[in-house]
Structures are given as C-alpha cells and as structure tokens.
Write a structure and sequence with these properties.
Elements: E1 2-11, E2 14-25, E3 30-34, H1 39-42, H2 44-54, E4 63-69, H3 81-91, E5 103-105, E6 108-109, E7 115-116, H4 121-130, E8 135-139, H5 143-147, E9 153-157, H6 160-167, H7 180-185, H8 201-213, E10 217-220, H9 227-231, H10 243-256, E11 271-272, H11 280-284, E12 285-286, E13 291-292, H12 294-297, E14 302-305, H13 313-317, H14 320-325, E15 327-332, E16 335-340, E17 344-349, H15 366-373, H16 378-382, E18 386-389, H17 395-398, H18 407-424, H19 438-444, H20 449-462, H21 466-482, H22 490-498
Helix pairs in contact: 2-3, 8-18, 8-21, 20-22, 21-22
C-alpha cells in the first residue's frame, strides 16, 4: 500500500516542500530510503522502528520503501522522523491518510515515541503557508516559533500517539497561538547600561552616532580603557527590532540551532563576540551543508571583534563582501545558499602587540606599532565609518560617584534620528544612513561651499579613497540628523572627518 505525506527541507534560511512517499509491499523485511538522504535521515530507520513499537503500534515486517522527493534536493536532519513514521502507519492502514495530505509534518522521534524539537522551524512554517497547506504538525517545543507566522495552524505534538489519535478523530489538539506584535513589543530589561561607563565622553558620542546611522566603528586604545565595556552597551541604545527584522533574524537563529525551545521570536538585537581563533567558515558561514556564520547570526545586530588585529588575515578580509553587500552567498556543488548579514561591526584593538598602557610607556618601536595596526588592511578600514581613539580613563573619573547618562536617554536621541531617516528613505529599502546608495548620497548629502573646501583638504591630507570620502558624507548626514538639521553644515563634516584617525597612520 502507498501513502504520501508532506514535510520540508531547509536550504539556507528558506525551506522547500518535500513529498514523503511510503510504499509497504509483501516481501522480505527491508527498509530502504531514496531521494538524497544524509546519514542523519538514513538513521531514522532505527528511530522510527523503535518509536512505532514503543508507542503501542505494529511495525510491518514487510518491504518498506521511502522516497523523498524531489530527488535532487539533499535532505538532512532528524525532522523527517515524524512524517516517515506516520507515512508507514498510513500505508499499513493504521491511520487515515486523507487528513495527512493537508498538513505538513516535522519532528524528531525518540525511541519511546516522544516528539523532539528540531531546528529550522520558522522557515518551514513560512514555506507551509506559502504552499497553501492547512497547517503544521510539529514538536510542542517548537510551536511558539511556528505560531508567529500569521494565518497558519500550528498543532503541537508531544508523542507519536497524539498524532495518530488526532488523525483518527479521537483527540482534539488546540492550535498554538502567539501574537508576534506582543513578542516584539515587550520591554526588555537590560542588565548593562551606559550610565555605568565612567568618563569616555568622546567614545559615547561616537557610539551614539554609530547607533543613529547604523555605522561600523573601530576603537583603538590601551588595555582596560573600556573598549569592551562600551561595545557591550551599544545594543542598549539601538532601536528595537521591527517585526520584519525579528522574523528574519529569528529564521537565521532557527537554522543555526540557536533559538531556544519554547521561544517565538528573538526580541533583542543580537550581540556576537567570536574569539579571534575563529575560522573563515565559522565567521562567514560554510560547511558541506551550508550553515550561517557569525556575520549572519549577528544580522540586524552587533558583531564585536575584540583584539581585531589578532584575527587571521584572510578571516578579516572575508568581511569585506558582507560589509558591502549585507549578505553572504555560500556556494557548494549541490547549490548556493544565501544568508543575510546586515550587521554593525564594532572592532577593538590595542595600539601595539604588547598592549602597553600608554604611548609614553610603550616598549614597542614605531615600526612595530605600525606593522601591528597594518594587519587591518586599507580596504577593510575603508568600510569602517568611525575610527575612534579610546584613551585610558584618568583616576579622577573612576573615583567619581556620579552616574553618567543612561542608555534610555541616548536611545531617545537615536530613535529621533532614525525616525528622520525612515521618512527620508520611505520609498526605498534603505533603513539607515550607512546603507545609502551612491544616488541617495548625492541626493541627500549636499555640501555647502565651506564644507567642500574642508572635505577637499581632508581627502588630500588623509589620502582618502572614494569609498572613504562617501563614508565621511554618510557620517556627517547622521550627525546632522542628530542635530535636527535638514542640511549638512561644515561643523558636521568636521566632526565626521575627525573619526578617520587611522587614515593618518596608514
């Protein structure tokens, strides 16, 4: 007897419908699987056999053939356990297969018949709605993740027997219900705040500009100056995730297996801080089956690279393309997977390899300091809008009892500037000044005559490239937005130019 059910395979952060066909015929007992299954899918034969028996049902001692179509699409993961098990039960007449035709099935089975959570549920739920199916049968631990997709019936399962009883009309399963707007609108209590940072007024100002325009920033200063402290507080002044952003970044986290069970959407902007020993595949993404790297996991959030010159040279250079395009394409023989990677880069570095406390007390020669910072190539630095000098905090600032400005106060000004940008780019896909195209740059960043002279002098003295020139204009536009000005003034350009400190050295 033949039965057919539907499941899905994840490709990048998208999912494709997979038809699971099960044929049970007389013959010597065998369990064959075709359709490009990987080792995890092939291992489902043992899990499914034990799950069916331990759930109280009879496993057919006949010839079983499972086909996963389309055959040219590679299938991987344990999410096919549930559809294969129900397909076998339908092919043997233990469950009715007509209702199965209208639902998509995913879930890993334990040996006792429990339905275990899987990753990639959000892209699968979106594919289910796109294909016009009635709903989704999935692990209960993943139901909130699927329920955020509107106009989709997500039925949570805890055991294989619950699915069988529901198909037979002996059980009612209440669909999971989640209001995505409620999830994204919840106030998140941060355990860090800018008020905890003593001194560093100049650095706080630079981070406010970075947050207001979505700019990348590099901080250079001695150990203990507060670079990591400042970087970890940047997310506290960023705008909250919009629903569209939350769904997109949650899809990446779901595919990467980072979305916690029983979570619906990621509600805070990601903050990722990989170690400097990370590989290129770990940072950018890769693997025989493409997986998102840290740049994609940090999508719509912050990627913090501490001790940036200590990262491998080719790893750092691999950042150039995602910084420019906001996406990563991982190509393999079986096809290409595209992952979003629109993040804010925050880098930190010591002025020298030894990490000396100050230039006066530095034991390194000028040549050693120059060679150390030269590990950051000029093309990479061109893609970083703000170069910031972070000096050591003097004792008088550390000993003060007064708290600094709170993250909430800074975030208020950032939201005001972002609101201006939202109006400016209302008819385009651009969300922040840092992502302006060349055409938008010429349209929204006119420069007065005195500003032209100042910019020309800066380009000549600093040896700026065309990209560096454009980055200055984008930063100046953001400073003008924070100032509530419609046009860029000379003082806005002057402040933007001072954040190109490394161009003087390299």
């Amino acid at each position: 007897m033949l039965a057919r059910v539907f499941s899905a395979a994840v490709m990048g952060i998208d999912a494709a419908l997979v038809s699971v066909e099960v044929d049970v015929t007389a013959g010597l007992p065998a369990f064959n699987m075709v359709g490009l299954p990987d080792s995890t899918v092939r291992e489902s034969r043992d899990r499914v056999r034990s799950a069916i028996r331990n759930a109280g049902y009879t496993f057919p001692m006949e010839r079983i053939t499972v086909s996963l179509a389309p055959a040219d699409l590679r299938k991987e993961g344990a999410a096919f356990d549930l559809p294969i098990a129900l397909g076998i039960l339908a092919a043997t007449g233990l469950v009715k297969g007509d209702r199965l035709q209208r639902f998509l099935l995913i879930g890993e089975l334990s040996l006792d018949g429990e339905v275990q959570p899987v990753r990639g549920v959000l892209p699968i739920a979106l594919a289910c709605r796109r294909e016009g199916l009635d709903g989704l049968l999935l692990p209960a631990a993943n139901c909130r993740e699927a329920a955020v997709v509107g106009n989709l019936t997500a039925l949570p399962l805890r055991r294989l027997s619950e699915a069988v009883e529901w198909l037979a009309g002996e059980r009612t399963i209440e669909p999971a219900r989640v209001d995505p707007e409620t999830l994204t609108g919840q106030e998140i209590v941060d355990d860090v705040d800018f008020s905890e940072v003593r001194g560093q007024a100049h650095a706080k100002r630079a981070l406010e500009i970075a947050a207001a325009g979505g700019h990348n920033i590099l901080m250079i200063g001695p150990p203990g100056a507060g670079k990591t402290l400042l970087a970890r507080r940047l997310p506290t002044i960023l705008p909250p995730l919009a629903l569209e952003e939350a769904i997109e970044v949650s899809a990446v986290w779901s595919v990467a297996g980072l979305l916690a069970p029983n979570d619906g959407l990621l509600r805070v902007r990601p903050f990722r801080a990989p170690h400097h020993t990370i590989s290129e595949a770990g940072l950018i993404g890769g693997g025989s089956v493409p997986r998102p790297g840290e740049v994609s996991v940090a999508h719509s959030g912050v990627l913090f690279l501490d001790e940036m010159p200590e990262f491998s040279q080719h790893v750092l250079e691999s950042l150039r393309q995602p910084l420019e395009d906001g996406a990563v394409v991982v190509a393999r023989a079986a096809g290409a997977s595209r992952f979003p990677a629109r993040f804010q880069l925050v880098g930190a570095a010591n002025p020298c390899r030894r990490g000396c406390p100050s230039l006066q007390a530095c034991l390194c020669t000028p040549g050693e300091r120059e060679r150390y910072l030269a590990r950051l190539s000029r093309p990479l630095l061109d893609r970083i809008d703000l170069h910031l000098d972070v000096p050591a905090v003097p004792f008088r600032e550390l000993s003060r009892d007064a708290s600094g400005e709170t993250s909430a106060a800074i975030r208020g000004r950032v939201l005001g500037a972002r609101g201006i940008q939202a109006e400016r780019f209302t008819k385009s896909a651009t969300r922040a000044n840092a992502r302006m195209s060349v055409g938008q740059l010429r349209r929204f960043c006119p420069i007065p005559a005195d500003g032209q002279k100042l910019l020309a002098l800066a380009v000549e003295r600093l040896g700026l490239s065309a990209r560096g020139h454009d980055r200055i204009l984008k930063v100046a536009r953001t400073i003008a937005d924070l100032d509530g000005r419609e046009t860029i003034a000379a003082e806005h350009l002057a402040e933007a130019i001072q954040y190109r400190g490394l161009d003087r050295w390299l």
